[in-house]
TrEMBL record:
This is L-methionine gamma-lyase. It comes from the Bacteria. It comes from Tumebacillus lacus. Belongs to the trans-sulfuration enzymes family. L-methionine gamma-lyase subfamily. The gene is megL. The keyword Transmembrane helix does not apply.
Length: 391
């Protein structure tokens, strides 16, 4: 019988417990691996024999992490990277060539936008951002040269959602692949491969690791495709995950479902508090009763996640809030135990040209993003209460 997600997030080690029966995975801090014979070395390079070669091409500790995340995302294989951007760039570069087009959700993490702008300028790979709330608009925006549909859902930082099942059907009908950035929810709350996505990418820096102590990325999808990425864009561009990072993420995975439950419960309380505050003019959070895509959130996600965006009347008022918090930490990143608060327009999305940011992505200058942590909800609320009182 297939075990439940909460069990699988802890019991990924058993078949691999080869050294001394160690409960946790051995940490192989080795850059290279000794071949038993010249013939074995040759066979490993030719892909005719399994076995380690060099830690840029694979590492036993990293391999445990790749398998564990693939299992949680219900994919055939996983591939680890030195950062979320390492995963996103390697996957996209492996999928496209000059003259191709990438169709994207209207909002994207700032550096993902930066990568696409660079691919367009230097390598003639075009991209467009479109509102995907109506699948008909996605179908209309597909071009003959569209090879990839690239989606964040929920979108960083506006929390708008994309219907993955509908969009995957459109992408496949046009011969394109769907890549989904699942960073904001983690596989505990959303499993895009089961909804038709071809590849899932993660900034493992966030909820997968969960403790704000590392930078890492993972991609999950079909084994044949990820083998190709491993031996091309990962191997030759080289954004590899270090074994220590893999080990720390494996430790984080054991508490992923429990952490996500608490992130969601805390964020729900904070969002409801913010929604009722007279100085808060807008709150975006998929768990709120009046969230515009409520039906989709309930159909596609197992929980609304831990990130909330909200607005206050002016940019100056927003700065006041950021400078007045005491418990929440004024920092970018998200998905860790500590509550983090930041200003997308001047921080995470500052690389996006202001007109694209405001008009296409819907990120107003007054928008504040909060990654609700695992502290007691009443303490997070009390902190926001005193900070909002400073306006
Ligand atoms: C942030 N985000 O604060 P790394 N995909 C998504 C992300 O949110 C991120 C990445 C990929 C933030 C980082 S801003 C300088 C700090 C949806 C990162 C990239 O390469 O692991 O950082 O992941 O929103």
């Amino acid at each position: 019988m297939e075990r439940e997600f909460d069990t699988r997030s802890i019991h990924w080690m058993e078949p691999k417990r080869e050294v001394h029966g160690s409960l946790t995975p051995p940490l192989y801090l080795s850059s290279t691996f000794v071949f038993p014979t010249a013939e074995a070395g040759e066979a490993r390079f030719a892909g005719l024999e399994d076995g380690m070669i060099y830690s840029r091409l694979g590492n036993p500790t990293v391999a445990v992490l790749e398998q564990a995340v693939a299992d949680l995302e219900q994919g055939e294989a996983g591939l680890a990277f030195g950062s979320g951007m390492g995963a996103i760039s390697a996957v996209l570069i492996a999928m496209v060539e000059s003259g191709d087009h990438i169709l994207c959700s209207e909002g994207l993490y700032g550096c993902t936008y930066g990568l696409l702008a660079m691919l367009k300028q230097k390598f003639k790979v075009d991209f467009s951002l479109i509102d995907m709330s109506d699948p008909a608009k996605v179908a209309a925006a597909m071009r003959p040269e569209t090879k990839v549909v690239y989606v964040e859902t929920p979108i960083n930082p506006t929390l708008k959602l994309v219907d993955l099942k509908a969009v995957s059907e459109i992408a496949h009908a046009h011969g394109a692949q769907l890549v989904v950035d699942n960073t904001f929810l983690s596989p505990a709350l959303q499993q895009p491969l089961l909804l038709g996505a071809d590849v899932v990418v993660h900034s493992a820096t966030k909820y997968l690791g969960g403790h704000g102590d590392l930078i890492a990325g993972v991609a999950v999808g079909r084994k044949a495709f990820l083998d190709e990425v491993r031996m091309s864009t990962l191997k030759d561009i080289g954004a590899v995950m270090a074994p220590m990072e893999a080990w720390l993420i494996l430790r984080g995975l054991k508490t992923l479902p429990v952490r996500m439950e608490r992130h969601c419960a805390n964020a729900m309380k904070v969002a409801e508090y913010l929604a009722g505050h007279e100085k808060v003019t807008r709150v975006d959070y998929p768990g709120l009763a009046d969230f515009p895509q409520k039906e989709l959130a309930e159909r596609q996600m197992r929980g609304p996640g831990g990130v909330i965006s909200f607005e206050v009347a002016t940019l100056e008022a927003g700065r006041k809030v950021l400078n007045s918090v005491r418990l929440a930490q004024l920092a970018v990143s998200l998905g860790e135990a500590t509550t983090l608060i930041q200003h997308p327009a001047s921080m995470t999305h500052s690389v996006v040209p202001p007109e694209v940011r405001r008009e296409e992505m819907g990120i107003s200058d007054g928008l504040i993003r909060i990654s609700v942590g695992l502290e007691a909800a009443q303490d997070i609320i009390a902190d926001l209460e005193q900070a909002l009182a400073e306006i």
